């Protein structure tokens, strides 16, 4: 089922015609209403009429997160505050927060895109929908909430945390859909088992998971533990929030981008040149219909690839791969660049480990190094009577180091801990802890 086939199954010619018309409207809006963009365009001698095709969007300047912070709080708004109906923003933990805004029409568009997303995930009108994304300035909770209501599902606005209550609510309300971060879905499943419950014996049919990179191995683990179909959703507050793209439950092969509302590019983050379809690079988005907060060529920092091939579900939208990582999440270990998700992919293929890990960045003299902290599985730990010095554990440690070295080309010290030794997440998982300084800093 497709929620809006008129837009999700456009021909290439129809889609490009619509995108170009909306791009022209957006360029006119930002040039005449946002002084930041007028100055940028004038500096480069860019006239809106000079953009004769979608390809020529490459002539336009990039927008960076720093630009949002430099214009905090309302400097990039294209509508006066009396036309704004909602504000969202980041936490500001790494500097000034970023603030984004929405008009009534922006909320209407966002709600439709979430309705599309839930249908793509396998949901339908009449479902009960358990929304465990955080509510508040974070766009996840409220973004999913309004779109779910538009579709006609009964939303349970439970937000994150209090996992035992989440489980009780799932048992009593019998939802078909679950929405949260993938790490929290794993936490819910584990807690069910701790409570003596069969984590697969539930009403859930599909899960919509995002807000952090996750691997195919993590998907398989969640699907197996909860007995559901798990799909990846993508979004970022600066562009809209969740719903910029989502996998379909039919193919689970790339996330369908809402092409009628967003123009996507993939660039080499070093050369800034566009890369070919299928090649990894940094996602760049231009909003095509945002009224309050339109952005031109926003560099997301997310690494992925795109394909324009038609999906077996019938949608013709551009699809993006899973996010491999973020440019600012990439870590350098003895001169080798590594994304945490690459290590996750390896770890989840190794028997005897629980699907949890943390990477501790440390100093070895002047060299940056890493310790990989993992957990022994409950079954193996019980079978060995809690003996972490057992030869089987030492063999497991050697296997982890060998597999990481083979796949990621880095050597890491491996620390195998007891079950539950790594903190569980009620939101975004903490994957990296920087211990190179006196006071450990959480990086992601």
Automatic annotation (TrEMBL):
Q: Which SUPFAM superfamilies match?
A: Acetyl-CoA synthetase-like
Question: Could you cite one Gene Ontology molecular function of this protein?
Answer: ligase activity
The record's annotation in Gene3D superfamilies points to: 3.30.300.30, N-terminal domain of ligase-like (3.40.50.12780)
Alphabetized, the UniProt keywords read: Ligase, Nucleotide-binding
The Enzyme Commission number assigned here is: 6.2.1.30
Reactions mediated catalytically: 2-phenylacetate + ATP + CoA = phenylacetyl-CoA + AMP + diphosphate
Pathway stated in the Swiss-Prot or TrEMBL entry: Aromatic compound metabolism; phenylacetate degradation
Ranges for domain AMP-dependent synthetase/ligase:
90-286
**Enzymatic class:** ligase
Specify whether Endoplasmic reticulum is a keyword of the entry: no
The record ties this protein, via InterPro entries, to:
Adenylate-forming_Reductase (IPR051414), AMP-bd_C_sf (IPR045851), AMP-dep_Lig_C (IPR028154), AMP-dep_synth/lig_dom (IPR000873), ANL_N_sf (IPR042099), PA_CoA_ligase (IPR011880)
Where do the AMP-dependent ligase C-terminal domain residues begin and end? 335-436
Under CDD domains, the record lists: PaaK (cd05913)
Q: Name one Pfam family in it.
A: AMP-binding
Question: What functional role does this protein have?
Answer: Catalyzes the activation of phenylacetic acid (PA) to phenylacetyl-CoA (PA-CoA).
Q: Which family does it belong to?
A: Belongs to the phenylacetyl-CoA ligase family.
- Which PANTHER family does the entry mention? PHENYLACETATE-COENZYME A LIGASE
Protein name, UniProt field: Phenylacetate-coenzyme A ligase
Organism name: Siminovitchia terrae (Bacillus terrae)
Tell me the classification of the organism that encodes this protein.
Answer: Bacteria, Bacillati, Bacillota, Bacilli, Bacillales
């Amino acid at each position: 089922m497709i929620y809006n086939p008129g837009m999700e199954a456009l021909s290439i010619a129809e889609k490009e015609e619509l995108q170009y018309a909306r791009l022209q409207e957006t360029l006119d809006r930002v040039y005449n209403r946002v002084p930041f963009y007028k100055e940028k365009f004038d500096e480069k001698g860019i006239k809106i009429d000079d953009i004769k095709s979608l390809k020529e969007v490459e002539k336009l300047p990039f927008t960076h997160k720093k630009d949002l912070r430099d214009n905090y709080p309302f400097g990039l708004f294209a509508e006066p505050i009396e036309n704004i109906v909602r504000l969202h923003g980041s936490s500001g933990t790494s500097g000034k927060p970023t603030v984004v805004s929405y008009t009534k029409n922006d909320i209407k568009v966002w709600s439709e895109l979430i309705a599309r997303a839930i249908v793509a995930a396998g949901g339908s009108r009449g479902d009960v929908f358990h929304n465990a994304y955080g509510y508040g300035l974070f766009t996840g909770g409220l973004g999913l909430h309004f779109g779910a209501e538009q579709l006609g599902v009964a939303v349970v606005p439970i937000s994150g945390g209090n996992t035992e209550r989440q489980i009780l609510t799932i048992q009593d309300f019998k939802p078909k859909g679950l929405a949260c971060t993938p790490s929290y879905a794993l936490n819910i499943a584990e807690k069910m088992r701790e409570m003596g419950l069969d984590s697969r014996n539930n009403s859930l049919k599909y899960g919509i998971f995002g807000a952090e990179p996750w691997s195919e191995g993590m998907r398989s683990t969640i699907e197996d533990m909860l007995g559901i179909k798990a799909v990846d959703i993508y979004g970022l507050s600066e562009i809209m929030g969740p719903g910029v793209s989502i996998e379909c439950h039919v193919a689970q092969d790339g996330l369908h981008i809402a092409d009628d509302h967003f123009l996507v590019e993939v660039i080499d983050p070093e050369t800034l040149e566009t890369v070919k379809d299928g090649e990894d690079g940094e996602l760049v988005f231009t909003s095509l219909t945002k009224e309050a907060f339109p952005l031109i060529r926003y560099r997301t920092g997310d690494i992925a690839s795109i394909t324009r091939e038609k999906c077996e579900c019938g949608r013709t939208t551009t699809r993006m791969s899973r996010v491999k990582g973020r440019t600012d999440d990439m870590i350098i270990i003895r001169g080798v660049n590594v994304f945490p998700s690459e290590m996750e992919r390896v770890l989840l293929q190794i028997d005897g480990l629980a699907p949890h890990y943390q990477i501790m960045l440390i100093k070895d003299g002047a060299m940056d190094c890493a310790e990989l902290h993992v957990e022994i599985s409950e079954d193996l730990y019980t079978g060995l009577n809690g003996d972490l010095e057992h030869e089987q554990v030492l063999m497991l440690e050697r296997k982890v180091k060998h597999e990481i070295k083979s796949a990621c080309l880095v050597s890491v010290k491996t620390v195998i801990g007891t079950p539950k030794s790594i903190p569980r997440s009620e939101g975004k998982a903490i994957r990296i802890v920087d211990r190179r300084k006196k006071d450990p800093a959480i990086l992601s």
